[in-house]
Hints:
The protein is an alpha/beta fold. The protein has helices at about 10-15, 30-35, 40-45, 60-65, 100-105, 120-130, 155, 170-180, 180-190, and strands at about 50, 70-75, 90-95, 110-115, 135-145, 195-200, 200-205. It has a domain at about 20-150 and about 195-205: Rossmann fold (3-Layer(aba) Sandwich), CATH 3.40.50. It is about 35% helix and about 20% strand. It has a seven-stranded mixed β-sheet with strand order 3-2-1-4-5-7-6, with helices on both faces. Strand 4, helix 6 and strand 5 form a beta-alpha-beta unit. The site of S-adenosylmethionine has 19 residues, from strand 1, helix 4 and strand 2.
Amino acid sequence: MHRVRRRRPIGDFARMAAGKDTDKESRHQYGAQYDFVFSKAFRDSVQTVLELGVHQGGSLRLWEEYFPNASIVGVDINPDATEYASERSTVVIADQADKDALDEALEDGTFDVIIDDASHVFTKTRASYEILWGRVKNGGWYVIEDLETSGKPRLYGGDPMLGPDTSMSGYLARIANGLMAYDVVRKRRWFPTARVVSGPNITFLQRR
Ligand SMILES: C[S@@+](CC[C@H](N)C(=O)[O-])C[C@H]1O[C@@H](n2cnc3c(N)ncnc32)[C@H](O)[C@@H]1O
């Protein structure tokens, strides 16, 4: 029998990403994941967004539309990225793993959403998470894209065993393990992760 493939209706993220210079939808198809996690009501309530990795500013333009009331900060190691600042978006030049530079630029800033789409190198991705997680507001989200890089150690570091100390996917799996054993773990220490949502090559962590 002939199987008919149903086309899903195009979501907000995919519609807004179309024509912008970002591969978040065209290559990675992250739209379905973002739209699943971020309701329209949440997006409208977002005031501050930080993205690591500006490239040519396409995602800054996308976030301006997707989070219509937010101020956006982009961070990139390439000084040319300042070109892509706008009325709604500022661009900070820093290495994503440089705590002093990030602390100096961000001062006491906190964010509803932080997205890491920068180097995807394991040690730098982990460093950014450890530096910036404390800046996620209660109920806000930290998003890590392109986690398939965890399986490409020659390009992105770590090793192919995907362990907690050797890959970002392993590191995040340990957090998810803690959450699944929450009643036990919380007796030993404050556990600040409220939710972990993983889709293909992407993970969203919500702060308690
Ligand atoms: C994949 S691109 C970002 C794409 C952009 N978010 C978009 O969707 O249009 C990665 C960016 O990360 C930047 N980058 C690479 N290593 C970095 C580092 N250590 N710290 C900060 N930015 C870095 C690169 O200069 C590049 O602009």
